[in-house]
Amino acid sequence: MSQPDLSPLAVYQARVASGALSPDDGQLAAITRLDRLWHELAAHAVAAR
């Protein structure tokens, strides 16, 4: 599941739900920050068009 239209948090949550990853508070904190950046960059890319 490496679809570019899925946010990092969505991918992480799907992998945890499927059992591919175990829930981890540290990973969740990091992926939450990464997800925020991903959304900011996506919004910037759309605005730049």
Automatic annotation (TrEMBL):
<protein>
    <submittedName>
        <fullName>Cell division protein ZapE</fullName>
    </submittedName>
</protein>
<keyword id="KW-0132">Cell division</keyword>
<keyword id="KW-0131">Cell cycle</keyword>
<dbReference type="GO" id="GO:0051301">
    <property type="term" value="P:cell division"/>
</dbReference>
